[in-house]
Amino acid sequence: MAHSFYPKEKYLQRLKIKGEWPCWGFPDVILVDNAADLNGKMMHGARKRYSFTLRDRPIDGPNFGGHIESAFKTFMHEFKSIDGTTFSNPRERAEYDSEGNAILTLNEFEQYFAEFIVNHYHLDRHTGKGMNNSVPLTKFRRGIFEGDKFPPTGLPPIPQDELALRISDAR
Predict the structure, then answer these.
(1) This prediction's pTM
(2) Where in the chain are the domains?
(3) What is the pLDDT of residue 9?
(4) Residue 87 to residues 93, 98, 100, 106, 125, Cα–Cα distance (Å)
C-alpha cells in the first residue's frame, strides 16, 4: 500500500520507464475483500494512523472491484501473448519446471507490468461502464481538476516520510 501513497517518478526511473503515473496521496476509503491480510490488525492500525475508512466489498459479486479485475484481465491477455509464457492452469503445468524455464526475472516482470500500466492501459481508450471510449489518464485528470461525478479535489499533498510509512507497525 505504501507504494500507492507515493509519487511514482522515482519508481519509473528505477525501472527505466518513460511515462506518467500521477497518482499519490492517502485515500479516503479503501474497499477490501474478505482476505485476512486486508482485515487484520496491521490494516486497521494503518486505517487509524492515516485516517482512511476500510469498507468491505460485497461477497460473491463483482461490485467495487471491476476496474481492478478489468485491468488484470487485460494485462493477462497481453502477457500470455509473449513468447515463452505457459500454463495458466496448475493441473496442465504438472511437473513442468516453471522456474527453470522462466523467460523473465521478477524484476523484468515488474518492469513489463509497470510499462503496461503506464504506457498502454492508462493511455488506451476504454469502453467499460462510465468510460465512454475515453482514456483513463484523461478521465483521472478531469476528475481531479474539473470534477466528474464529484467536485474537483486537486492533487493531494505528497506524504512526507516514506521510510516511516514503509516500516510502520501501523499501531
Answers:
(1) 0.78
(2) 2-167
(3) 94
(4) 5, 9, 14, 18, 29
